[in-house]
Structures are given as structure tokens and as C-alpha cells.
Amino acid sequence: MNARQPVNETTEQAAASEDGRQPILRARRLVKTFGRVVGLDGVSLELYPGEVLAVIGDNGAGKSTLIKCLTGAEIPDEGQIWLDGREVHFKRPQDARAAGIETVYQNLAVSPALDVASNLYLGREIRKKGVLGSVFRLVDQKGMRESAKRELTSLGISTLQDVTVAVENLSGGQRQAVAVARAAAFGSKVVVLDEPTAALGVRESNQVLELIMSLRDRGIPVILISHNMPHVFEVADRIHVQRLGKRAATITPQSHTMTDAVAIMTGASKG
Q1: For residues 241 and 8, what is the distance between their CA atoms, to the nearest angstrom?
Q2: Which CATH architecture has domain 1-100+187-271?
Q3: Which of 144, 191, 224, 265 could form a disulfide with 187, with the two C-beta atoms 3.0–4.6 Å apart?
């Protein structure tokens, strides 16, 4: 695919990239309606290994519906989804998680009363070895804390040195880091981030952006949904533009400016 040529739905797109890479996640012609309201109108999307793909669009453009279909929260009426070359049919978010797709939603599904380590392993607790774990179901708190420290260090998260601190005592950016770290720890194939910097200040937003780039450096592909254009253009490799339930174009920060992207979003330009 020529980086200088935006992709739109009037032109068929080969799934493989210019260098022959196959997408890790691919959706083709997804349709989702809610009564008479069309959420998605034949939307396609490709996410390649080790890239950050931003999804942008005005309210009502279909961003959330698209992500929900990709992550099992909604079932598309029509269309196909492939993960790692295999067609998948997610009926619920747990199916997507089991397949290796982790999602961090805007409202952050963290438990404030639990510490950092317990949140990292929420729902996936490590049990003690032997009878204590298999019969009495005792949690290996020490093992989880040691593993949590390793995971945070590998992601370059320096703001969470003490994994025994309750999440309710953390800042917004630190809470976001916990949620993203959990997704990275278990999202073996894809991590989806929904407006991760929406409620954060400049310093904490920068920390989250660094975390996104750290995921990419580890080879974990990321789908980033965001209204913040400077953030999108700072970290995204490619940008999927939604408009009125369709994919209006796929562009790159090298081929288009923020003004160009907004023009495509609003219909002032077709890219």
C-alpha cells in the first residue's frame, strides 16, 4: 500500500502490506444496525504486527461500534473478522480475551480497593502450588507481586514502584498505566485502547503515550481510539478515519496533516 494514497471503501484493498506482511487482525465489510440506525455500513480494517493503528471520527461515526464488534461486545450483522489468519466469531468479550485481544475501555475496569498487583491479575489470579492452590484455592500473593513488578519494569513504567499500593490512592495516569499493563500482560496478540488520555493532564498523557510506544516496541499491535489529534499523530503508524458508519480513508501522519484528517472526518475532503 502506497503510504501517499489514502484507502477508501470505493477501492478494494489487498490485505497484505507493501512489505508482504499479513494483518494480525482483519475485518471485512462489517455491518451493524440498531433498528433503523446504521452503526456500521460495510467497514473494513487491517491491523498489522507491531503497529499502532489509530481510529478517529466524529461522534456517531461508528468508532465505538467498530471496536465493540472487533472485541466481542457486539456481534456484527454481516461481515467477517480474522485474527492471525483464522476467521473468528466472537459472541462475547471473554471470547476475544481468550483469543488474545485485550481492551482498555475509557471507564477503566479496575478495582480501587485492591492493590496494583491484584488488579493486574484480576480474574486471572495465580494460585499457590500444590494442595493449597488446587484444593483450598489460595492466591499466591507474593508470586503475583513479583510478576507484576517484572511486567511493569518490562513496560518501562517507573511511576508504579510499589505494587502493594491500593489503586484508589493512585493518580489518573497511574490507574491508566495499571489497566494498560494488565492488557499488555495478557493481550498476546492485540491491545485496544479506548480514549486512554481523555481525562489526563499533559504529564500523565505523555506517560501513557510512552506506554503505547513501549507496547509497539515489544511487537504488540495497538488499536488506539482517540479524539486527540496531536496524540494520534505522535504515536500512530496509520490512521483509520470513520465517517457516517463507513471507513472514509486510511492515512498516515507522513502523508496527511491534522487538518487533512479533520477534513476527511467532516466530509470536507475525501482524502
Answers
A1: 9
A2: 3-Layer(aba) Sandwich (3.40)
A3: 191
